């Protein structure tokens, strides 16, 4: 695709968003992101259907599965323009960005035919059942159990998942569970897909300091996963789970970075408005944050190029470029949150619902403290980089 074609596509995306992110959807602009995921859930589900009607879901999916099979650069352009327009946090992200590509890569024809259309059409919503009280960053310590029902061949699931985003708004959950008694670590795991509306599943909200409850605990007491809803083979769950994490570090990361750009602009504008921009150190920190975003984008494009090449070669493992991504962005974002508080000064400690920018910066700063913890702590990320990326000896770990 040449530069003129890219410019035309960018204009098409921007025009569609301007026309559609209006009226009843106007209030969704810049809402529903991390720390704000409880905002307007039903309206954001309606927005997913609007996106699907406009042909803006499944952009990179193969046409055979209902996608548009767009080249990487066009997908990048869409996500950048989406964030630039203030597009809301995607209720369909887990479905379209994670389990959808995993189904395409590993699912049976039956699974693909049953489950992909609802994701693509914005009518079926998914959540992720990975973390447990004793298996968060160290996912291989998972203890949720899956036992085969000899009569039906289905799998009965018992255990607990935690920090499950928007489970209360979802229709399905995918779960990593231990199916081989006595197994340890990454061995003996199974990747299951379960409908949430069934006996044996209880969803309990986790109330946060800000009053919201976008995260949940999910308890399984003999919940049933149909034999036809095992993704991959029993015992192969770790490989499937790791491939899914590779999709998580996909093209939507460019949209995340555009949101970071918005936040940096809010910080800079706040500094100009209250005069703190006259402080040379504040200007230096803003400049460093801007440079950090450029580095983040360069690595993301390198990461996407590596993933595209690996896909052509038939690989699904995380590329070395992807191993550093989470560590880099989470630390950058945490530092931006601290910069926001420093720029706001004493007002950072004062709530004022009439000051939208200050409220957004306060929410961003508070939630960014969790960035270096969820989805793998800094310590776990450094282990991954050392062991998988650099080939260094594994850290000693005890079995539990």
From TrEMBL:
Which residues does the UniProt record annotate as the domain Acyl-CoA oxidase/dehydrogenase middle? 127-221
Question: What would you give as a GO molecular function for this chain, any one?
Answer: oxidoreductase activity, acting on the CH-CH group of donors
Q: Which cofactor does it need?
A: FAD
Which InterPro entries does UniProt cross-reference here?
Acyl-CoA_Oxase/DH_mid-dom (IPR006091), Acyl-CoA_Oxase/DH_mid-dom_sf (IPR046373), AcylCo_DH-like_C (IPR036250), AcylCo_DH/oxidase_C (IPR009075), AcylCoA_DH/ox_N (IPR013786), AcylCoA_DH/ox_N_sf (IPR037069), AcylCoA_DH/oxidase_NM_dom_sf (IPR009100), Mycobact_Acyl-CoA_DH (IPR052161)
Which keywords does the record carry?
Answer: FAD, Flavoprotein, Oxidoreductase
Q: Which organism is it from?
A: Cupriavidus phytorum
Q: Which residues form a coiled coil?
A: none
Task: List residues of the Acyl-CoA dehydrogenase/oxidase N-terminal domain.
Answer: 3-122
GO CC terms for this protein? Answer: plasma membrane
Which residue intervals define the domain Acyl-CoA dehydrogenase/oxidase C-terminal in the entry? Answer: 235-389
The protein depicted here goes by the name: Acyl-CoA dehydrogenase
Give the family per the record: Belongs to the acyl-CoA dehydrogenase family.
